[in-house]
Amino acid sequence: MLEERFRDTMAVYGDDSLIWIDRYFSMNRFDRAFTFNKKDLYSEDDIINAGKSLKIITPAQYGLTSFGWHFLLRLWKEKRIFGLFLDSRIIKANKIEKVITRQLETFGSKKENVGWIIFDNWDLNNKDAKQILTYIKKEYEDVPLLLLCPMLEKSFIENENISLHEFSIAPIFMAPMQLCQLRNMVSVYNRKRNIGEDEVVLKRLNDDIQNFNMHRTPLNCISLLEVFSNSFDENPVNRTEMIERLLRIIFENEEVPSYKSLPDMKDCEFAIGYYCEQMIRNEQYYFSGKQFYDTISDFCKQQKITLDINYLFSILLRNQIICQYDSDLYGFRFAFWVYYFAAMRMTKSPEFTNFILEEENYAHYPEVLEFYTGSDRTRNDAAEIVIQDINKITNKVHDKVGLPDKMNPLQYLRLDITDEQAAKAIDKLDNQLKQSKLPTNIKDALDDSNYNPSIPFHQDVRKVWENYSVNYLQEMIGIASKVLRNSDYILPENKIKLLDSITDAWLNTIRVIYLMAPALAMEGKAGYDDFRLQLADSYDTKSDDKKQLLIDIMSNIPHNIVTWYKDNIYSSKLTDLLYEKIEQETNPVIKHVLINLVIYKQPDRWDIVVRRYLDKSDKHSFYFGETLSSLRVMYAKGAMSDADLAKTKTLILLGYTKLATKGNKMNPGMIKKINPNILPQRESGNE
Predict the structure, then answer these.
(1) What is the Cα–Cα distance from 596 to 604, expressed in whole angstroms?
(2) N or C end of the chain: which has fewer CB within 10 A?
């Protein structure tokens, strides 16, 4: 029976769950954590073996109920210890004894056999909570408790000091999933409903979770995998379509009472869009149930639409699109829902579209424009306004920086390689080149170390204020990049202008960082206008050789630009536009950044474009050396197909044939003479 209860909690979208994901815990709050390290976490085994009462705190929908039943199931199977599972929402203090007696009878057990007690949906604000705990502590004095406490993100952020201790019960916080766990989920799901190569699907899943500002939880992963199973593109291109598919899954899996009929999804989207328009216009993002009903009711009457608003509200509430924050205070749980519905409203209301576009309100709510342009991919109105505005802010920043147009921050950097180092690349032994790959546990650790678990706790609908600053330029680069990525069917000349404007903004950002580089080398951090940077731990800031540190900082500027912006701009559908831009670009800095983008994203024919670039580049130039460095980074750490791995290896070896000769030409015939040890290590291994 325990097994049956556990499996019931695992069923989602009308299907049995495919896999159990072990959960981990920390003594520290994740809404304040900026790093994520497995070695600092505790396991389910640790909790069982400690045998002490704990209060487990998580955001809602983290899987606490499933964890509770899994915990009891393991206790019984492995240790023959019986535990009670009680739902705090439905238990009254004066009924607690009867509820426990009934559960003991159901499982055929006795009071003296109870070794653990779990309270699900624990909330100290529940007026019966203290009485229930008092009773349990008296009747089950030596029995450890697990209080499972889901809290909405708003509650975390607004409570500096959450009430953590009840009856000396210590708090512990459930961790988001690690990348290796996402990988396991993708692998199992792929075996049942093949979506694509595991590594490709994993990257898309991880990117989308972070792009949507969602928590890394089993439910969020399953939701996105369900969307992928219907239509999959390895690049997270159109988030508008993603949300529409997610909504469709929610509505299609809604269990409709016999006396009800399921509301039309598009009617619901239309009505909610109007409500979100009012929220944005009034800048009020929390509401009562009556406000929601009255506003949408009046709108439906005006539009001559019949809609069961109460049933719609219950669907939104049940699926955590809307959450209850107080007795009669509601709001959208994730900010992207507000942006999405507002964008859908723009497609139906020219007046609201003008409000967002003509008055530059899109800059205050950038994701609204992303979803708007993704709605039908042909929004020339948005593209033309963004081109105009990004050019305006780029010119403002350019004038502030005051550097000459022809100034190239990277022109004096040269590749420093001695004759001895070049000679070491030659080896007459005709050894096979290493084919081994970086173990997934190392790649996952690298990813998890860069994952910030605190970001999804911040779900306020934010307003980005325009002030013609460097930070505002970064916002505009992000907006323009997503507009270009989403706008498959706009006029070709608008695509070209958008990409030109984006790369010009990149160049001006590079110039700003160039100005900040000396301060970064001296102090480890620097600011210009309201733009702030700090050196990563990988830099040797304690070194006395500040000149070399300065060179290292400047050398990494193009890499950082690509890292910051690649996921916003890239789509495989833009491949020809990117190649055309590379071919025609006269500014060597912009061309080099675009080449790096191609190396990191590896679209079709990428190796041909990069090989041509290497062939034309001076082997002693910064551009040649940095391109070789980017290829080495991808070879060492990049997730790619075997075919692209082979192409990357060939390009690295070709680059070394150019370095190892007196001329400036690559020599394919020399590849066999290159010492394979010059390749970065991709060690084989198992998790």
Answers:
(1) 15
(2) N
Beta bridge partners, 234, equal none
Q: Which residues touch 466 (CB under 8 Å, ≥6 apart)?
A: 360, 363, 364, 472
Question: What type of residue sits at position 553?
Answer: I
Q: What is the number of other CB atoms lying within 10 angstroms of the CB of residue 516?
A: 20
Q: What is the pLDDT of residues 400-459, one digit of tens each?
A: 777 777 777 777 676 654 444 334 333 321 222 222 223 344 345 545 655 666 666 555
Mean pLDDT across 193-204: 86
Whether the predicted pLDDT of 648 surpasses 90? yes
pLDDT of residue 77: 94
Residue 147 CA: distances (Å) to CA of 29, 53, 60, 62, 113: 16, 8, 14, 14, 20
- For residue 232, the one-letter residue type is F
The 3-state secondary structure of 564-619 reads HHHHHHCCHHHHHHHHHHHHHCCCHHHHHHHHHHHHHHCCCCHHHHHHHHHHHCCC
List the Cα angle 343/348/354 in 5-degree steps.
70
**Cα distances (angstroms) measured from residue 635 to each of 573, 641, 652:** 24, 11, 9
Interatomic CA distance for residues 450 and 37, integer angstroms: 10
Least confident of 57-61, 96-100, 159-163, 348-352: 159-163
Max Cα distance, the chain (Å) = 90
Task: Tell me the H-state helices in 321-365.
Answer: 335-346, 350-357
Tens of pLDDT, residues 579-619: 999 999 999 999 999 999 999 999 999 999 999 999 999 99
Q: Burial of 554 by CB count in 10 Å (0-12 exposed, 13-18 middle, 19+ buried)?
A: buried
Q: Provide the Cα torsion 372, 374, 378, 381; round to 10°.
A: 30
Q: What is the pTM of this model?
A: 0.69
CA–CA gap between residue 555 and residue 630 (Å, rounded): 12
CB 65 within 8 A of CB 148: yes
Inter-residue contact 608 to 517 (CB < 8 Å): no
Going by C-alpha positions, the residue among 432, 404, 386 that lies closest to residue 569 is 386
Query: Distance between CA 665 and CA 657 in Å, rounded?
Result: 8
Query: Distance between CA 247 and CA 251 in Å, rounded?
Result: 6
How far, in Å, CA of 73 to CA of 67, rounded?
10
Strand 170-174 vs strand 54-59: parallel, antiparallel, or unpaired? parallel
Q: What is the mean pLDDT of the chain?
A: 82
> What's the pLDDT score for residue 579?
98
CB 224 within 8 Å of CB 239: no
Higher pLDDT residue, 10 or 429? 10
pLDDT-derived band at 17 (thresholds 50, 70, 90) equals low
* pLDDT value at residue 100: 94
Q: What six digits make up the tokens of 297?
A: 């009711």
Rounded CA separation 135/427 (Å): 79
Give the confidence band of 380 by pLDDT, cuts at 50, 70, 90: very high
How far does the chain reach from its first CA to its final CA, in angstroms?
34
